[in-house]
Amino acid sequence: MSLKKIAYNCRLTVLDMIKQSNSGHIGGSMSCIDILVTLYHQIMRDDDRFILSKGHCAEALYAVLASKGILSQDMLSTFGQFDTALAAHPTKKAPSVAFATGALGHGLSVGVGMAIGNNSKVYVLMGDGELAEGSVWEAAMAAAKYKLNNLIAIVDRNNLQISGNTEDVMPLENLETKFKSFDWEVRKCSGHEPDEIVAVISEYHDKPIVIIANTVKGYGSEIMENKANWHHHIPDDAQYAQIKLDFMKKITELGGEELPITSISKRGESLIPAQPNKVSVRKAFTSTIENIAAANESIYMVCTDSRGSVTSTGFAEKFPDRFIEVGIAEQNALSIAAGLATTDKRVFACGPACFLTARGYEQIKVDVAYNQTNVKIIGVSAGVSYGPLGGTHTTLQDFASIRTLPNIEIFAPCDKVQAEFVTTYLATTNRPAYMRIGRGDVDQVYSTGEKFDIYKAKTLLDGTDITIIACGEMVYPALLAGHKLQSQGIYARVIDMFCLKPADTEAIINAAKETNAIVTVEEHSIFGGLGELVCGVVTGNHPVPVKVMGFPDEECKVGSSQELFEYYGLTPDGIVSECRKLVQS
Ligand SMILES: Cc1ncc(C[n+]2csc(CCOP(=O)(O)OP(=O)(O)O)c2C)c(N)n1
User: Fold this and answer.
1) Mean pLDDT (whole number) for 97-102
2) In whole angstroms, what separates CA 256 from the centre of its chain?
3) For the chain, where do the domains classified as CATH 3.40.50.970 start and end?
């Protein structure tokens, strides 16, 4: 059976997985499937290793593993489900996955380590946008130093990333010359022609080798080919039918033996339910900063191929000279922001919180906090906003890590009204700050016009039996829990601690003195965040029992944020139950 035909069958599988689960990365999956099929069906031997550095295309890998019989159809149908072994980025729970990926720019370094440690071949598939991460080039130097001729890097050169063409987002050319200057063998081929892929990989080479595989994002159906917005677009029913037809036509044209059409069982409900009546905090941030920037030319934004996540397209279009796009390079973004801030600019460094605050931590520590630069770090889609995307995309450590840094303020607004207030404050202060916001639309806690004091916690409900202290998007469920408790005769005080640093210690001490116990609730690890902050203040001033609610010390399950809140008890009922236990004890 021809490899091309197997690849089209895998495309059909991927299409079904994405449509049924309402999640996935269709464009980049379609561009790399011929490469994966060629590797798994023709090139790789049993002891060879493969790393999908562009981990967001996990569904393509799963479909190819299924075509080899390594994964069952039943298993494929769990894609996108709660606690699945087939997460949206590969984890080691998935059969034959050598290494969990999902944070771009790691795969080549891991491949260098594997290639140093054993003689078998190591194949690493990277996206082209991914090459903006500096660590890729650190790995390239190391591979050349150790003359790793068993390391084969493949670049899926589809010329697109999330925000558009790679040459506009962060120019890569001349890619061949770049790799050659790092002392690599470079070969080019079509990434959709298995024979060409086999030929270039099979040629003798005594150095690390990179295959620049020219591909088309969304390959196989005109509807999605070469369209950046199909990076993670979910086809509607008509598009789904058309794409399926296009693939089937290609299969027929390829002739020969017929393949069974893989079809995975239907899940029914959508993974991220639409919430039409709720409002997004990230959009509140971007519309506020756009308004302020119109009147203040010192406001700049630095972004990391994250316009969609940040919702910063409006800013980019209105103020192109003040919108600095650095591509997938969080460390670079933060240091550039710091340097820019030294030229009297007010700089907002924006991107997914998981990558900015973890990958860029040293830059935050040294270039922002230690140098006291006027940089506001805006971490979007924080907590478990990206829950379906798995552990690489959770941000459950940011309060803990950033709280330990001097000179930097930390805010976690709970809704649109509060986000507008905090953003306006950030645009006027010179102090470094981190603002964490979620992704989804959330219920409104405050009415328009509500007044805040920047360092003062807000008491939303007064009571004397117990205090619930929450921050960010846990404030609304905490408030619901407070009302529920009051209706049961337990007079709960509810406090919104939207400024975690400097924290309103007076509100915490008063809560300890005036109520018998405290429950804290946060979309963060139970370590190092709001809970431990409150414990520290209480212990040193007026000890009362404190229950810290958050994410426990385990690898977070994969699921939508709502599924995760339910599972970990971070719901109004879960909060009520913990409060009742504390009051009764
Ligand atoms: C460190 C890191 N930063 C940001 C992201 C979010 N992200 C996921 S896919 C993607 C674009 C990838 O573009 P490219 O590497 O060209 O892949 P392809 O176009 O082949 O899908 C981005 C920015 C990430 N996964 N990891």
Assistant:
1) 95
2) 42
3) 3-254, 279-442
Q: Mind giving me the DSSP string for 528-566?
A: SSHHHHHHHHHHHHS---EEEEEE-SSPPPPS-HHHHHH
- In the DSSP assignment, the letter for residue 234 is P
pLDDT in tens, 275-333: 556 888 999 999 999 999 999 999 999 999 999 999 999 999 999 999 999 999 999 99
Give, for ligand 1, the residue of 14, 18, 53, 54 to mutate: max count of ligand atoms closer than 8 Å to Cβ. Answer: 54
Helix (H, G, I), strand (E, B) or coil at 469: strand
Topology given in CATH for the domain delimited by 279-442: Rossmann fold (3.40.50)
pTM: 0.95
Amino acid at site 521 = V
| Nearest-angstrom CA–CA distance, 259 and 13 | 12
pLDDT one-digit tens code per residue, 404-414: 999 999 999 99
Residue ranges, CATH 3.40.50.920, the chain = 458-584
Task: Reply yes or no on domain 3-254 having CATH 3.40.50.970.
Answer: yes
CB 331 near ligand 1, within 6 Å: no
C-alpha dist (Å) from residue 8 to 23, 31, 193, 250: 20, 11, 13, 7
Check pocket membership of 129 for ligand 1, CB cut-off 6 A: yes
Ligand 1 atom nearest to CA at 306: 23
Residue range 458-584 forms a domain whose CATH class is alpha beta
Q: Which of 47, 53, 141 is nearest to 89 (CA)?
A: 53
